[in-house]
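Cross-check.
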Amino acid sequence: MNKLTLTLKDGTQITGDAFGAFKESEGEVVFTTGMVGYPESLTDPSFKDQILVLTFPLVGNYGVPTEELDENKISKFFESAKIHLKGLIVTDYSEDYFHWNAGKSLSDWMEEYEVPGITGVDTRALTQLLRDKGSQPGQIHPADQKPHDDFYDPNTVNLVAKVSITHPQSYGEGQKHIALMDCGMKLNILRSFLQRGVKVTRFPWNQSPFDYEEKNGVKFDGVFFSNGPGDPASLPELVKIMEECFERKIPTFGICLGSQIMGIAAGAKTYKLKFGHRSQNQPCVETRTGRCYITSQNHGFAVDEDTIPSDWEMSFANANDGSVEGVRHKKLPFFSVQFHPEATPGPTDTAFLFDEFIAML
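Predicted model, tokenized:
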């Protein structure tokens, strides 16, 4: 087999067998401790321009689903229309696959989107390095070639602009109408709202739904801010839209990046986590009840608890490191969570948060 090498910015190199596309690539190297769900993870826009290391040793054994669309012309099995990763690093890739709706191998799917993979390496040792030194830029290149000197850090560019839609799109029917700010939204967020009988209009990340209201004679009952990639502090346009939601006192809900944007708009600060939270097994404690939920997560930034204003509170805390997993206004209808209640992949224990938001409308 052809050989590919992953070179980290700190000089660490690992070499293994290539699968997927045999090509050079670069991005931020991060890890996930999830055991399943690679079709959903690879199509999650929050992974834009990242090289993903899987701690679970086996990948590829159930292939990749055949694409199907539901009645709203939304993919049933993927979280967006394409792979957003820049590379995949695994211990043991299985070319032999079996599943009731598998249509192709993981390698063939990755080759279709020109995404390289490396197998036959110790991903747990690599994960320990990233845990100790932190996530960092890396390059994938043929083993017989040297990496170039400049390392691309995706957190220095506006990734949200690359994964958001370009014009408003409406879905579903219902008495309640939600404006959905698409910052790189996973499709199961959209499915979760439509399953609850509401109408949704999806907006580009930097287009105000309130301008749309005035021009089109519609009225939104609530505004939702989605997940997405990159540094939330580099998105002042999105923060401004969140601040406008606060001024209007309209029910507002944010997930992942949307939670960070809510924190910034409230007056808090955000910071980059050393290696982030990426898995389907992160325990989060609801501060009001003390109840712990197992959650799906994919983020590298968080709200700084010490900067949360007095009229706001931390609503969820990560049980492992104590970091902020949600914020909530003490009186007004604004709340957010850092984790993914829509799951895919992962547990659906916190899907009730969609119902809580809809009850506010």
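The longest helix spans residues 236-248. Residues 3-156 form a domain with the Glucose Oxidase; domain 1 fold (CATH 3.50.30.20). Passed to J.P. for a second look.
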